[in-house]
């Protein structure tokens, strides 16, 4: 069985570092990181990860615009996307559900349970 690869797109260095450590050490996955939406789209095209974790609130190209571009791209449209967000009210959740993302993880997340949460959302358990 090959090791799953996750692309983590987040503009915050600390979040990328903590999530990467958690997903690699606890989940046993390979994590590729990108610091912004455009870099994330390019990385997704080149690396073809098994899943993408995408921050919603980023400068320039936010998570929603990044997701739309990923969905419009033949090379990346079938990659499951999990949104990372600090905004998790019911109105926000309805918006997220209508997008067709695989799931939503609230920030701040618990590093020790992040890999389990991702595995459950993606059906990797």
UniProtKB/TrEMBL annotation:
The modification 4-aspartylphosphate is found at residue 55. Keywords: Phosphoprotein. One of its GO terms (biological process) is phosphorelay signal transduction system. It comes from the Bacteria. SMART domains: REC. Residues 5-122 form the Response regulatory domain. Pfam families: Response_reg. PANTHER family: CHEY SUBFAMILY, STRESS RESPONSE REGULATOR PROTEIN 1. This is Response regulator receiver protein. It comes from Limnospira maxima CS-328.
